[in-house]
Design a protein that fits this description.
Length: about 625
């Protein structure tokens, strides 16, 4: 049923009029009236009677697409694409395949779509990152998800918690006639009360807001005194007549209401509503000054986009603004929700790279960065949408048809920490892009590695109350490690300042800090790698340099043991340098064990003297 609030204003024009004929007349009329259940039955009759062609198959597929019957839609898109079709048909086919977990087949259809519409943002995103699904699935979960007990056997979606009242939209009112789109009753606004034990009371209708048409979803200001909701324009007797199909065509419109005791009154249509486009799915900022909503109004990038409008102090509204291509695509974006700090926007999209159907995304409006997929368990292969979050109660809600019907789900935050690393030049303060940034656990195991973005940043999500560290490196700079202290969920900012490499080079050698190895081991440690990167940089700057690596040990252990250990370490050092692009002819290494002690202190050596003896030398041979 949520598709009604995404596609109502344009689904009827998806048919190719020239392909219609007397055979399809009955089915086409039902389709144009959004009576998809009956339309599907009529198109299938044509198939059964051998009167189907590419047009019928596409109409049948689109019919199931609009009802989000993914299996049937995919079946008929497969038939439709055996004939000539437009690019959008291949995109929809890919969406339905993804919704059934068939990602490899979906990619084939996306390749076809991209070849037919190369300038489409969806096509560009796919070509840049065709194998994006594993990365989404590997995301660290931010929430646990659980179906709410108050969900019924009809569509329930768009839950938002205001105080202790949960408002949502539902088709559960069996006392009303069904809507031909999917043979469910018209939508109404319901409410339920959150109890002390965390459960919700039996839902009841918000009768003063509901009409005999579709009503909801809603949003409420932080003070609880103003409510915005979506409803059919029919409630104000506003519609257009389709004389051919004997149909009255309304739009989704936005309305406001104010608190009147324990109920809502003073219902007003918002000034920017129109008979030419729909406005729906409102979300008001905490300060009440900005209203976010979805619309297909002129200026939209795709079918439906996310917009915002200023709410003025005198009750008037500014000019709606499109949120642009960081949020919107040529597909559909809807169900916005703005966070309490007015920085993070949550929304649903079928046009961005997702797991299938609608996915929930979050966009940092303060930084202007690209929206990111929220991953599982919020998103699945099915339709997932209408994410909202109540900071005071630390409770989130979203809607999904993963169980076969649009249901309400609760989202409980998993305690996590956003570790944001900013990599800069220690001397100039310049932000360093494409720096290698790894995050490690308390046992020095690398959890993940990313390259810093254009702002010099890398962001990791990790668990609360655990110690981590950041390792950052970049060609031309000394690598370094930075501690990440325990945190209980706040964002942790780690300034990673890297010193430009300035190595001491004499006539005889290149002087580095000690290259440390673990006890009785010869593998290069991260700290050793940071230091060896300086040698690599010097050798890249002068490709005529020929270096001899001499590895030494202290005088503990047998002569043979120390000779073998130092030789392994010398060879590991050489292999690391070669792996960084230095020619093998420019570097060699040999172990000298304890044969060339720097401090000949016998059995009375202190730990400091042992450390002086355990050294690597980088001699300039040529």
């Amino acid at each position: 049923m949520k598709n009604l609030y995404i596609a109502l204003s344009f689904v009827a024009i998806s048919s190719t009029i020239s392909a219609q004929n007397n055979n399809t007349k009955v089915a086409d009329k039902l389709y144009s009236r959004y009576e998809y259940v009956d339309a599907a039955a009529q198109y299938k009759k044509l198939v059964d009677n051998g009167k189907a062609d590419g047009y019928v198959y596409k109409q049948l597929a689109d019919t199931y697409y609009n009802m989000f019957n993914t299996t049937e839609a995919a079946t008929w898109y497969a038939k439709a694409t055996e004939t000539t079709q437009d690019a959008e048909t291949y995109f929809r086919y890919a969406q339905m395949l993804k919704a059934n977990g068939k990602y490899e087949e979906a990619n084939k259809q996306m390749n076809k779509f991209a070849s037919m519409a190369p300038s489409d943002l969806r096509a560009k995103s796919f070509k840049e990152n065709p194998n994006y699904v594993p990365k989404i699935l590997d995301k660290t979960p931010r929430y646990t998800a659980k179906s709410l007990d108050i969900s019924g056997d009809k569509s329930d979606f768009g839950a938002v918690l205001s105080g202790n009242t949960l408002y949502f939209t539902s088709a559960r009112n069996n006392a009303r006639k069904n809507y031909g789109w999917n043979e469910e009753p018209f939508l109404d606004i319901y409410k339920s009360t959150l109890g002390d034990e965390g459960t919700f009371s039996e839902p009841t209708t918000v009768s003063e807001l509901n009409s005999k048409y579709h009503d909801g979803p809603i949003t409420v200001t932080a003070d609880g005194n103003t409510l915005y909701f979506a409803s059919d324009s029919f409630r104000e007797n506003s519609f257009e007549k389709d004389k051919k199909n004997k149909l009255k065509l309304g739009k989704n419109n936005l309305f406001s209401a104010t608190k009147n005791g324990d109920s809502w009154g003073n219902i007003k249509s918002l000034s920017f509503n129109s008979n030419d486009y729909s406005t729906s799915n409102p979300s008001v900022s905490a300060d009440g000054k900005t209203l976010y909503f979805s619309s297909d109004m002129p200026g939209s990038l795709g079918g439906v986009d996310i917009w915002k409008v200023a709410v003025n102090g005198d009750g008037s509204y500014g000019t709606p603004e499109n949120l642009g291509n960081k949020v919107n695509t040529e597909g559909n974006e809807s169900f916005p929700f703005i966070s309490d700090d007015n920085k993070t926007l949550y929304f649903a999209s079928s046009g961005k790279q997702g797991l299938g159907g609608l996915d929930v995304y979050m966009a940092d409006l303060s930084s202007g960065s690209d929206a990111v997929n929220m991953g599982k368990p919020i998103n699945t292969e099915k339709d997932d949408f209408a994410f909202t979050f109540n900071k005071a109660k630390n409770m989130g809600f979203f809607s999904s048809n993963r169980n076969g019907n649009d249901d309400l789900f609760g989202a409980t935050p998993i305690c996590g920490v956003d570790v944001i690393t900013l990599v800069t030049n220690a001397k100039t303060g310049e932000k360093l892009t494409n720096a290698k940034v790894s995050i490690l656990d308390d046992k020095k195991n690398i959890i993940a590695t990313e390259m810093s973005n254009a702002q010099g940043e890398v962001k990791y999500r990790v668990e609360c109350d655990k110690v981590y560290s950041i390792q950052a490196s970049k060609d031309g700079f000394e690598g370094n490690s930075f501690a990440v202290a325990k945190s209980k969920g706040e964002t942790v900012n780690i300034p990673a300042t890297l010193q430009p490499i300035d190595v001491i080079v004499t006539e005889k050698e290149i002087v580095l800090k000690p290259i440390y190895f673990e006890y009785n081991k010869s593998n290069i440690t991260q700290e050793g790698a940071f230091e060896l990167d300086k040698l690599v940089q010097v050798m890249k700057n002068n490709d005529q340099l020929v270096i001899m690596v001499k590895a030494h040990t202290d005088n503990r252990g047998s002569d043979e043991y120390n000779m073998n250990l130092s030789d392994r370490r010398a060879k590991s050092t050489v292999q690391y340098v070669i792996s960084k692009g230095i020619s093998a002819k420019n570097i060699s290494g040999k172990g000298y064990g304890e044969s060339e002690l720097k401090v000949n202190c016998g059995e009375t050596c202190t730990e400091e003297q042992h450390a002086e003896n355990r050294r690597s030398e980088f001699l300039i041979v040529k």
